[in-house]
Design a protein that fits this description.
Elements (H helix, E strand, L loop, with lengths): L9 E3 L7 H22 L6 H26 L1 E5 L2 E5 L4 E5 L5 E5 L6 E5 L4 E5 L2 E5 L2 E6 L4 H12 L2 E3 L6 E4 L2
Antiparallel strand pairs: 1-2, 2-3, 3-4, 5-6, 5-11, 6-7, 8-9, 10-11
Amino acid sequence: MEPLAADGRVEYRPELLSRRGEYIAWGTALAVIVAWVILYLTRTPVFSGLRFLAILLALSGVAISLGNWMDRRTVLRLEPDGVWFDNGLRQVSLHWSEIRQVQVYPSAWGKKVRVTGEKTHFDFRTLGEVILKGEVKGRMGFEKGEEILRHILENTRLKQVPGPDNGSYYARE
């Protein structure tokens, strides 16, 4: 684990994906919307599929932009008495004793981890690499995600319990 700061805290930020996908989504949405407007202004009938495509691409752009915005604001801080998480939309502070369960699910790009308290939760992803044709095209999640997970499990003293699916579940006995 990284050395703790003088106040016993250590902050982690996730790896950031390229914004290329966001630009592509917005660019194609804009191109389809421009085509729609041109057809409308020239009083040419507009195929309903074009409208649907324009709306779908615009919504995709919004979703990708929101995800990128959240990633750029995400901070996970391990503190002597608990964990603090903020991603711009969700801010959670849990004392070690308040954490009831940790769920870990394998995925193609790092493990998905859910830390659950009595009334709130937060999710993070361990490091995952996007590989195309044997070449790393991007990294996502927390580079030291396995270390963060291990630290949380050690400090909460949760025990692994049987659970459904192919994930790992940790809870209080």
